[in-house]
Amino acid sequence: MSEPEAGLRGRLVDVGVELVAQEGAQALTLREIARRAGVSHGAPRRHFPTHLELLSAIARRGFADLAERATAALGDGTAPPRAQLDTLGRVYLEFALDNPGMYELMFRHDLLESGHLGLRDTSLPLFGVLVDLVGRARPDVDARLVAGALWANLHGVAQLWRWGSLQLATGADDFVPLLRSALDAHLGPEAAV
Q: CB neighbours (10 Å) of residue 135?
């Protein structure tokens, strides 16, 4: 691929990332991305034969951003597993709440279930970190299942918090107590130090 062609591909993804941040996942049409990138409405098809392929490329940026944030927050990985899970949970929830359009796009089932789009290759490593930490915190459980349940719980907290439902139901003004309750529910109460 020539440099201008590679540059256009990246520019289309950049425009998509900006668009999803400003207007949400529903705004990500090929025509609107092309318009904002200053190219003909057919130009994206040269790089992304389907709309889903362009959406997947945009969502990969979201997973990369989330992974970078998680890696930075976890630091050298020497903190106890439970503390790292707390940190990872906070990063996940903050990302979801600060980037609702991208978060919605990242977890679209049509993008994730399509093996040829490669999005699972970007999303699964972060889940692997969660599995590893759960396994280290609770070596007596099936870490994949507990990590899956914890992830589902955090995903639910993110969605319900964003909608205002959890604040209404619990009276909470911060998601941290909910995160700690989720960790207790899936890992058992934290041992007193």
A: 17
Q: How confident is the model at residue 4 (pLDDT cuts 50, 70, 90)?
A: low
Residue partners of 63: CB distance under 8 A and separation at least 6: 106, 119, 122, 123, 126
Q: Which of 184, 72, 56, 189 is nearest to 129 (CA)?
A: 72
pLDDT of 3 over the 60 cut: no
d(CA 146, CA 191): 18
Q: Between vectors from CA 97 to CA 17 and to CA 87, what angle results, nearest 5°? A: 110
Distance of CA 161 to the CA centre of its chain: 16
Tokens representing residue 175 in the block: 């998601």
Round the CA-based radius of gyration of the chain to a whole number and report it: 19
| CA-CA-CA-CA torsion sign (179, 181, 186, 190) | positive
pLDDT of residue 45 exceeding 50, the answer is yes
For 22, 90, 96, 143, the CA distances from 102, given in Å and listed in that order, are 10, 17, 8, 28
This prediction's pTM: 0.89
